[in-house]
Design a protein that fits this description.
The chain has about 400 residues and is of the alpha/beta class. The protein contains 13 helices and 13 strands. Bound molecules: pyridoxal-5'-phosphate (PLP).
């Protein structure tokens, strides 16, 4: 099954699947004379609302912007605390700081990397205002106990669903019942708009505020000022941001959303194939899927390296993988140990054992619909060669 030779061409870690439909729709926008926020953004929002079963959808130019808007709507006071996971992309947590809050980290389940509700509850104080779970790698966080904790302590629940377009939790599509959930359409995500994101929000009043905040905090966006029937006047209601999605981006997203089920099905086939191929390499330990009922969107295929049985650490191992022409991702080094958070809060090792254990060992394998089974054999063969080369047993 394993191949003897190094792959000849570099296998990228990710590649978006862009078809002729997306290309034609972008060209249509470019030729239409309307390229910024307009009818195609409205269509993508409406399609997303239908897809999610009726939540308010607010398109933005990144999930980072979406998370910022959700937190901005909480009007945090200095010293207010928000509890989140250390195993995430920096923007989940940076936005807490940008909004004047205090970041509090709770540990994750060792084999799924999902935030643990009991770890959250142990960190709640009189200043806690919100919780941000990350539906890590495309598997859902355990929403039922998270909702119970948030209800008990009157906390907002902002779901970072950047990895979870099309994830299901106990028969519920992630985002479809959320107070606030934010999806990412970055090129490596399950569907893309180039850059972009979508907020789903239950409360129409809050959704209106986010729509305003995404465009300077004024009462009327460009489409509602310049399109036929629009009025050019506007009023500044509160200082806002420039986070609107372009029609050029939405043009891509409209077709990506239609293909999402098909994309996620292919991701699932490939993930299952990796699980099978990796069975005989105990030094490479894939994440486990949560034991509650769910459908995985397989955004990422994350593995942990058994560094104790090898003579190299994870960083050196992935350098060798790259020399084998295999592109690799890192999702994610624990954030509480990164410079800003370490220095600001005095965090150090030993504080969040499961996150730290994983942080030293994890990396992500290529996983996207255009990957082939033959590519996967190249990846696994490279892993096998390196594990044998660096084994302490050998
Ligand atoms: C967990 C998580 N949250 C938020 C983001 C931010 O997404 P975006 O790049 O759309 O701003 C990412 C991006 O990778 C992410 O992985």
């Amino acid at each position: 099954m394993y191949k003897m030779d190094i792959r000849r061409e570099f296998l990228p870690f990710c590649r978006p699947t862009i078809g002729q439909d997306e290309i034609d729709e972008v060209v249509d926008s470019l030729k239409s004379g309307w390229i910024t926020t307009g009818p195609k953004v409205a269509r993508l929002e409406s399609d997303f609302e239908s897809w999610s079963g009726g939540q308010e959808a607010i398109a933005v130019n990144s999930a980072t912007a979406g998370l910022h808007l959700c937190l901005a709507c909480l009007d945090l006071e200095p010293g207010d605390e928000v509890i989140t996971t250390p195993i995430t992309w920096p923007s989940t947590v940076n936005n807490i700081e940008i909004c004047g809050g205090k970041s509090v980290f709770a540990d994750v389940e060792k084999d799924t990397l999902q935030i643990l509700p009991q770890e959250i509850e142990a960190r709640i104080t009189s200043r806690t205002r919100a919780v941000i779970p990350v539906h890590f790698a495309g598997a859902p966080s355990d929403l039922e106990p998270l909702r119970q904790v948030c209800k008990k302590y009157h906390l907002a629940l902002i779901e970072d669903a950047a990895h979870a377009v099309g994830t299901w939790y106990k028969g519920e599509l992630v985002g479809s019942r959320s107070e606030m959930a934010v999806f990412s359409f970055h090129p490596i995500k399950n569907m893309t708009t180039g850059e972009g994101g979508m907020i789903l929000c239950r409360d129409p009043g809050r959704a209106d505020r986010m729509r305003r905040l995404r465009f300077h905090g004024i009462s009327r966006d460009a489409w509602r000022r310049y399109a036929k029937g629009g009025l050019p006047q506007y009023e500044t209601i509160e200082p806002g941001y420039k986070y609107n999605m372009l029609d050029i981006q939405a043009a891509i997203g409209i077709h990506q959303l239609k293909k999402l089920t098909h994309f996620n099905k292919r991701r699932t086939e490939l993930a299952e194939n990796y699980l099978d191929l990796l069975k005989d390499i105990p030094e490479i330990m894939p994440l486990k899927s949560p034991d509650y009922s769910h459908i995985h969107a397989w955004h990422l295929f994350v593995v942990r390296l058994d560094i104790d049985s090898l003579s190299v650490d994870r960083d050196e191992f992935i350098l060798h993988l790259q020399e084998e022409n295999i592109g690799i991702g890192l999702h994610f080094p624990a954030l509480h140990l990164q410079r800003y958070y370490r220095e600001k809060y005095g965090f150090s090792r030993g504080m969040l054992p499961a996150a730290e254990w994983n942080s030293d060992r994890l990396f992500s394998l290529p996983l996207y619909p255009l990957l082939t089974e033959d590519d996967q054999v190249d990846v696994v063969s490279a892993l096998k060669r390196l594990v044998e080369r660096f084994s302490r047993k050998g």
